[in-house]
Amino acid sequence: RRLGAGGTLRVPRSSSIPRGVELELPDGTKLRIARGGVLRFGENCVTSRDEEWRWRDDLRVVLGRIWLTVGGGDGPEPRVATERAVAGPRGTAFSVAYHPKRERTTIRVTAGKVHMAPIHRPKRGIVLRAGQTGVQRGSGPVRRVR
After folding, report:
1. In angstroms, rounded to a whole number, what is the distance separating the alpha carbons of residues 88 and 79?
2. Closest to 80 in 3D by CA, of 36, 121, 116, 44
3. Of 26, 48, 104, 128, which sits with the fewest C-beta atoms within 10 Å of its C-beta?
4. pLDDT, tens digit (0-9, with 9 covering 90-100), for 110-144
5. Could you tell me which residues come within 8 angstroms of residue 124 by beta carbon, excluding any fewer than 6 positions away?
6. What is the rounded CA–CA span in Å between residue 83 and residue 44?
7. pTM score, two decimals?
């Protein structure tokens, strides 16, 4: 099945799927979106049975939480962004949660490393390693909390 460029995937909060929706992309990346979550694919993130998947754009968490295990492909890895922060994985497994009313992004790394930075200041970021959590609120800096 084809994922539309610039498309939005919404998982209803009342969904009968207890853990949300899980996707496996052709490059081996595994993605799970929690119930009540909203995820937007970048303008060039498309795939079908006839096309090879290539990360050319970000995934944007509009609301809720996602878990991502990045595939081991040779191409570029996805960046995951929220309204306030961006995460650049480095061969890893991690989760991203965004709460729009609180303007808070939380990233938890379970394996590998993730570079987390404010969306408008990507060079002002930190590297989070397995077992660490980073938080960014409003327009403030990214902070390691664990």
Report:
1. 5
2. 116
3. 48
4. 988 888 998 888 788 899 999 999 999 988 899 99
5. 117, 118, 141, 142
6. 19
7. 0.74
